Amino acid sequence: MAAARSALASAGRAANEAVSFVVFMLLDALELLLCLVYKVADYVAEGAWRPCYCSSSAVAAPGKIVVAERGGSKVVSMLSSTKLLLEDISDTLYTRPSLLASAAGSSPPSFSRRREKARPSASATTLTVHSAIVQILRGKAAGAGDDEHKPYPSPRWSDCHCANCNPADADRLFVHVEGPHDGGATEEDVLFIHGFISSSGFWTETVLPHVSREARARRRLFAVDLLGFGRSPKPADSLYTLREHVEMIERSVIERYKVGAFHIVAHSLGSILALALAVKYPAAVKSITLVAPPYFPVPKGEMGTQYVLRAVAPRRVWPAIAFGASVACWYEHLGRTVSIVLCKHHRLWELAFRVFTLYRVRTYLMDGFFCHTHIASWHTLHNIICGSAGKIDKCLEAVRDQLTCGVTIYHGGDDELLPVGCSYAVQSKIPRATVKVIDGKDHVTIVVQRQKELARELEEIWDTKR
């Protein structure tokens, strides 16, 4: 029996690989066609031929983009004094070998060669950067009368134009706040951070309603919509880097509400932001709770960003969640098509779903999934998840060595998107961390089907004195 099961498993894997090869070869071809379609569509709708990341084009920009050494990091300075650390941009944005190239064993071009080519100068160094990145930065730096480098229109023709997707306040995130009913002073706060293509509703519709009155009497509860998602701003001229996401959380929550001591609860991609935020405020963080953190230790000799890309998106048709992640990670234009169909028309889809279910099913997960733009999801996926390959190690080491707060990690035993090994890998970097694997739960149901239990467990974490 064991031999038969092993043979069946091997046959299943072989079939999955064979079907996946054919499917993703076809998707590679479709991506090339969509590239041409969107170039024409963007030119017709916006009057500009926008570069995309599927090409290998690069632009030298003397006098427009210069690099200088500051504090040991290479800083790109724009005409408007905008600064961008080169390390914030993941090479997976523009280095994604086709399936045929991967099967042939060809390796992607060197990251250092593709990202920049330095040329000595008296005061600065001229860079050669991917044209899509240059276009975004030039648009961001352009003045009102600069016709040479027009900024991206926001929202773009392919984005939703409703008020929820385009808030009037473009400088701060949408923040859901709950405080003591009597308006009294609080001892500490709790910050909830959602994951990829989600929203604050992931927490406000599940865990927050079950937080006890006693816990609320001492704490304010904050749940944010991350930059580019939900009811938060979705700037078309943002690269949605780790730095931008963290700075927006600081500006919108910590500074605006004068947050002192606080706990952090984060799901999936939000775990990376939580760790980065904790490192910036080591004395203020009272506890860190991570749910399904996307941490993949990079083997020695591997290129970190490319390794994480393959781990998160293995280009397999099964399981279905891996197929969805692969389409989102590897195909810029196919992902944009999905975004147009679902996100641009999210109000229609939400209404149809409510009618189909006779208004008996809450749609908060759909709200979070649909309310984003493609440029936000594409850059966040690559610059945060893939691009954090090296940064997250430093954050984990800082949490281990510089913070004394408790670290608790939850993971679903049936999570097919991020394996349980991700959480144990975090524990290997932070030995004091506690890992709790919940059998029968996956990447989403680890929260949405056990909200009462999680709320009770979180209160116990918050009340623990260290």
Write up this protein.
- The chain is α/β, with parallel strands linked by helices and 466 residues long.
- It has a domain of 213 residues: 3-Layer(aba) Sandwich (Rossmann fold).
- It is built from 18 helices and 13 strands.
- The strands form three sheets. It has a seven-stranded mixed β-sheet, sandwiched between helices. Strands 4-3-2-5 form a four-stranded antiparallel β-sheet, with no helix packed on it. Strands 1-6 form a two-stranded antiparallel sheet.
- Helix 7 crosses helix 8 and helix 8 crosses helix 15.
- The radius of gyration is 23 Å and the shape is globular.
- The termini are far apart.
Question: How would you briefly describe this protein structure?
Answer:
The protein is α/β, with parallel strands linked by helices and 466 residues long. It contains 18 helices and 13 strands. It has helices at residues 2-46, 99-103, 111-115, 131-141, 201-204, 213-218, 242-255, 269-280, 304-312, 320-330, 332-342, 346-356, 364-370, 374-386, 391-402, 421-429, 445-448, 451-463, and strands at 58-60, 66-70, 73-77, 83-85, 125-126, 128-130, 175-178, 188-193, 219-224, 262-267, 285-291, 406-412, 434-438.
